[in-house]
Amino acid sequence: MSHPAWLRSSVWFLLVGSAAALTHLGVFAWLTERSALWPEVANALGFGVAFGVSFVGHRWLSFADAGTSLSQSFTRFAGTALAGFICNEVCFIGLYRGLGWPSGLALVAALVVAAGQTFLLSRYWAFKR
């Protein structure tokens, strides 16, 4: 029994996204515990590391049937990821600085918000079928 392509893509997106989010959170936690970096800077550096995990996983697993070249997917995904990071950082700053949430909780919430945006842009643009 074969599963629909959208279901396989969605499951892989969730797994790859979770791996990237855990990478992001791990780098963020490591940096905020061991340095005097502002949490916003640690968030940006965590994003930078997680970007690699995310692109490789999404290109070869979530959207393996992409109809775009590797370079076209990378360029588009970089734009998608940057838009997701901007959404993440704005949400993070609002929750952390504006509402006084603990930095870890604010980052988790910001990652969830940005994940939906990233999925839609990835599915329908960056890795267009």
Write the layout of secondary structure elements.
Elements: H1 5-34, H2 39-62, H3 70-98, H4 103-126
The share of residues in helices is over 70%
Structural class: mainly alpha
Strand content: under 5%
Overall pLDDT: 89
What count of helical segments does DSSP give?
4
What would the principal axes of the Cα set say about the shape?
A: elongated
The run of helices and strands is HHHH
Rg, nearest Å: 15 Å
Distance between the termini: 23 Å
Poorly predicted segments: none
Largest sheet: none
At a glance:
The chain is 83% helix and 0% strand. The chain has helices at residues 5-34, 39-62, 70-98, 103-126.
Folded structure, characterized:
The chain has four helices and no strands. It has 129 residues and is mainly α. It has a domain at 38-126. Helix 1 runs antiparallel to helix 2 (39-62). The two termini are 23 Å apart. The mean pLDDT is 89.
